[in-house]
Amino acid sequence: MSATTETPKPPRALPPLMSLSDAAAERLRALYAKGEQGKLLRIGVKTKGCSGMAYDLAFVEAPGPGDEVVTDKGVTILVDRKATLYLIGTVMDYEVKPMSAGFVFVNPNEKGRCGCGESFHV
User: Fold this and answer.
1) Which of 59, 65, 85, 122 has the smallest count of CB within 10 Å of its CB?
2) CB atoms within 10 A of CB 116
3) Phi and psi for 30 in degrees, rounded to 5?
4) What count of Cα atoms within 13 Å lies in the side-chain half-sphere of residue 65?
5) What architecture (CATH level 2) is domain 18-110?
């Protein structure tokens, strides 16, 4: 019998937990510089809506023990650790439309959204 030794494969790179579009980074910089100075945006997921889950955004004074710190394009956000499995690989964008403006999420984990677009399921 001959023993063959295989070189172990290197672990594959994990996708970033979250990333920011240029528009989202620019908007957050503006918010952090003005009304939300000294605070950080925390992103989570909560039970809500027709499809079961919705993104939950809140400004907080400091990271909590259950927060993952994400820095992209020089901007820091927090992600609630309980939401990480739902958000891996998500891109946060900022859209301005004729009648509204706000943060939107391009989430590769979403399997569907409700008709109004407020909630999603994985």
Assistant:
1) 65
2) 9
3) -65, -45
4) 0
5) Sandwich (2.60)
